[in-house]
Structure prediction request, 294 residues.
Amino acid sequence: MILVTGGTGFVGQKIVHELRAREHDVRCLVRDRGRASKLAAWGCELVEGDVTDAASLRAAVRGCDVVIHLVAILTGSRQEFERIMEQGTRDLVTAAKEEGVRRFVLMSALGTSEETRDLVPYFHAKWEMEQAVKASGIEHVVFRPSFVFGPDGGILATFKRLARLMPVTPIVGNGKQRIQPIWGEDVAAYFAAAVDKPEAANRTFELGGPDVVTWDELWTKLKRALGVRRPSLHVPMGVMRVQATVLERLPNPPVTRDQLKMLEAGDNVVSSNDAVETFKLPLVPLDDQLRRAA
Prediction:
């Protein structure tokens, strides 16, 4: 039995679907069964609970031999990052260790490192999650994906709306920083393969698609795929920070100052081909990703 946390999310659903396609028994930790009807329809066992409730984590892990931990937040106070991501992971690791879980597979994020851990609460939380898993003594696999693209959610859906609705496409900064988007189903294939692959044990893998592009190139490709002809405008980082200061007051801000800090930190590309060489999985080219999502 495989326990999946965060299975109702954009990437989580893809991972659960891939696991079920491979005929794995899957149990999903959910806060609301009503929002998990798709998972139930796929044959998943549902258990109600929350990563902030240690008792519910112990109940969820019982009888499982693999844990796939996907829960994370993108915005919130430092205390929320600590409570949900850091302490939640520590409690889940403790429960997994007590239950004798064989392997723990963690979703981290590209850009997470000892050098960036104090840049923003998100990176700090991801780093602490990684450390908790690595120090547990449980056989583990840590993935650090780049931007995950798909037709049905995630950041690409936001990009599509901007490209279609805005008279001018705003590009943050100079547009020269590089990114390496990966298709959602490809991420799911990595996670599913990591459940059993011996060569992946106790390793950290950066995940990116087969193509590296600048932000300028990405927007050009996306607008071409959408059939949109609109000019782009580079918005200085200073202007974006002022806007983010105001937008952060919204319930679901489109951009935050912390996200801008992560963008300024440098290229979001993988530093090695370890994942490709270890898993040998086919990857969807960026042009095909954009066509599928158009």
